[in-house]
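question for whoever is on the cluster today: can someone run the full assembly for these? two chains, 631 residues total. i dont have access anymore since they changed the login thing
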Amino acid sequence: MTGAINIKTEAAPGRERAAGPWREGWRSFKKSKISLVGAGIVLFFIILAIVGPMIAPEGINEQNLSQRLLAPSSEHWFGTDDFGRDIFSRVIHGASISLKVGIFSVILSVIVGSFLGIIAGYYGRWVDTIISRIFDILLAFPSILLAIAVVAVLGPSLQNALIAIAIINVPNFGRLIRSKVLSVKEEEYIVAAKAIGMRDSRILFSHILPNSMTPIIVQGTLAIATAIIEAAALGFLGLGAQAPAPEWGKMLADSRIYLLKAPWTMIFPGLAIMLTVLGFNLMGDGLRDALDPKMKS
Amino acid sequence: MLHYMGRRLFQLIPVLLGMTFIVFMLIRSIPGNPAQVILGQQATKEAVEALNASLGLNKPWYTQYFGYLGGIFQGDLGVSLRTKLPVSEEIFPYLAATAELALFAMIIAVIIGVNAGIISAWFQNSWFDYVAMVVALIGVSVPVFWLGLMEQWAFSNQLGWFPTSGREDVRDPITAITHFYLLDTLIQGRFDQFSEVFKRLVLPGMALATIPMAIIARMTRSSMLEVMRSDYVRTARAKGQKMFIVVYKHALKNAVIPVLTVIGLQTGLLLGGAILTETIFSWPGIGRYIYDAIGFRDYPVIQSGILVIAFIFIMINLIVDLLYTVIDPRIKYK
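^ ran it for u. tokens below:
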């Protein structure tokens, strides 16, 4: 009996030790109400993107010219556009487009940026010089103009907008990972791994990359917010999703001529963009405070 | 200091050279031939080839690139394929239009952002702090083109306070001297035109100011919070110094460095990022100038336009770095 009690008391500190940085991070994230609101908004839009096509009252392009530019009502919650299409349905369908571009462009930037950043940070010397200068050059461009130029080369489409946004974000992640690698590679466990003759690729991908994940997750979440705005901006300029895709930026561009007659065609897609971006920003801020207190602004 | 400046300028050379190369190659990968665009789809093959030859577009890419590079070193940014005017002359009014708008926006952003940040920090956890920070969070999340449209709808269409778009009243055009219209109208003593130009700056200026304003407010708040916990501020408060003096004479000076970095970075971003605001408000700025040039495959305009913006962006950041030493004499560059 006494033994059992002893075991219990000994196990307790052990369990506390097991609470790693992720659990600690989650605990601190949970404490911040505003971060939870952000996570809630993000979750809402993710669910909307998945189940949206099933719950939307109408399809993306169901035209009804007798119902053009109707104001919001119980039948059409967000009103109708110039083709008599239900804006509520189109905004719901648009969630998946914006989230897809935001999330996948950032994943692409993270993959390419991490790869380049790790190589630059780990190997140093001329490899580092070349890669870092390329990052400097890309960062000196006004990002939206670079994105426009890339789309001009590839041709206007949603997929090419995604690629353009990924390209302009690569140097941000590349620099982040590079600086992280520079600090991690001097740690004792990396020196030890080198000493026992571990291959570079294994050290890079099994040890250095996982230990650089925290800033990537934080920066990635915030970057999704920016990417969603950039995708909408390209859509607004006619360089992203093409008609009749219910992309929010494109919907805003189409609403311009009806600004006076039918402001609802502009209000709701814009609100959708703002809320989604706000969600990712709040969540990113919360993650930063929880996971990486040093980055706290 | 001079040595530092020289080194920074020297480091810029490879970046700028790299930029010219990337822009040059990128622009030439855009599908479509400028000669074809200029002459239209009906043009004969011979006519297109003849125009290509006269524009020098039939030469190998490296000849074109080094020719372009040589020109830049002599201050020649090329000749617009569309208007046949030298880009170095043509670009200035567009650049001035954007610079005037960006500066106007930045002034609004700094005045409101810095003061909101200070008040938030001073009254930390008060209702003002919460409201200001929620507004700032919304501010960084709002798409600037949507905000511009909303402003047009509310303040122009509904309330009729400001003109919807444009930089000047077309019925009463401004005689350009510096191409900064606020300045030009003042020089000429045309106060009626000054007020018209000012009114036209308000809506696009506010739209463009939102994001930097929100970022500056958040940065000032966190920077001030740090400084206000320091001993000398506590001493000043304990002595019973007025809030105004504690904040503006003691605390702000030490909190301003990170804020200044943000201001520099954002001013540069505004120059290139103004394209959306310019589109909505029909503002004849540099963003629109480059965007339209892409449609016409006007290579010299696109490559020189992007290069000029990037150069200004880099220079602003250099100036901000140098300003650090003026504000905080403890910082010394070697």
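summary bc i know u wont read the tokens: Chain B touches chain A through 46 residues (CB under 8 Å). DSSP finds 14 helices and no strands in chain B.
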